[in-house]
Amino acid sequence: MGEDDDEGSWSAKAAKEATKYGKINMVLPKTDSYTDIPDQSTWNLSPDASYVYYCANETVHGVEFPFIPDTKDVPLVADMSSNMLTRPFDVSKFGVIYAGAQKNIGPAGVTLVIIREDLLGKAAATCPIVLDYTIMAKDNSLHNTPPTFAIYVMGEVFKWIKKNGGVKGMQEKAIEKSNIIYNIIDTSNNFYYCPVKTAVRSRMNVPFRIGGANGNDDLEKEFLAGAQKLGMLQLKGHRSVGGIRASLYNAVTVDNVKALSVYMKDFYQTHKK
């Protein structure tokens, strides 16, 4: 039996997939609004669970775990696709960590997996060989032909991260960049509105509406059009929630974020009531 922490879109999708392989228990009730992470004392954790899964940073709604869940002796499985290499964490607290490369590691097409050795060999019989970590470990991650160029680029990214202060350096920059945008939102008298509770706001993905909590479609379209003219692309919110979303992954510089902040301030001054 697996357990899933449904605190965002990707957790909900993971839970749906997991039902193909066994019984799933949601430790948090399903909701249509992802703005907070309830205190862990309220979670419905079962000591008989095979594992507990969570997504460390939900890119769609902008909710990020500021802590590592304590699951006692139950293996903890985490999707860190969008915040790997952006903050230090204790790897020993996890059973499995996986992360798609496409946010902070390198080009799409590579997945990083860290698995506790005692969990190898526990894959379900229905698990495809290409997803069987036991096979991958035995074959030194070379069971199939690897994407060599993508792996090469990853190496260059790792060198760049080390040159710029390592993971701690990335964390400092992530805090600085996200604070710039959140500060504008919080001082705009709800002209810019972010529904996510302050303690769990993502440092990687800052979603917000323009013109109030429900957003003003005309203002948001004007904002996006103006941003595009300035070379600021992909600021439209995820299609499932709308609004605006600024993604601040490691490759986004402080100067990039400051340029966005200047535009946000100018837009606010022009359109505030």
UniProtKB/TrEMBL annotation:
Its EC number is 2.6.1.52. SUPFAM superfamilies: PLP-dependent transferases. Its cofactor is pyridoxal 5'-phosphate. Pathway: Amino-acid biosynthesis; L-serine biosynthesis; L-serine from 3-phospho-D-glycerate: step 2/3. Residues 10-260 form the Aminotransferase class V domain. Belongs to the class-V pyridoxal-phosphate-dependent aminotransferase family. SerC subfamily. This is phosphoserine transaminase. It comes from Periplaneta americana (American cockroach).
